[in-house]
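The authors assume throughout that readers already know how a fold can be written as discrete tokens. A single example would do more here than another paragraph of explanation. An entry of this sort, consisting of the sequence and the corresponding backbone structure tokens, reads as follows:
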Amino acid sequence: IGGNAGGVPDVIKEGYNGYLVDGNNINEISTKTIELLKNKRVYNKMSKNARKWAKNFNYEKLIKQFKEVVYNS
């Protein structure tokens, strides 16, 4: 669960690996938190997807992408 502002929407894909909420809306935050605590199937699915998504951001891949941008520009 992350706030729908700044760079967070670049990392959290709504319904795939988490939920985006208005960080100032306590009802929205609590509703999504309770949903994940009560629904193990959704929690497990999003957790699996989050781990898969995180593999896109290891240092080797980031360095490779950086070099491609720097040397190919």
About this structure: Helices lie at 8-11, 26-38, 40-54, 59-71. The mean pLDDT is 93.
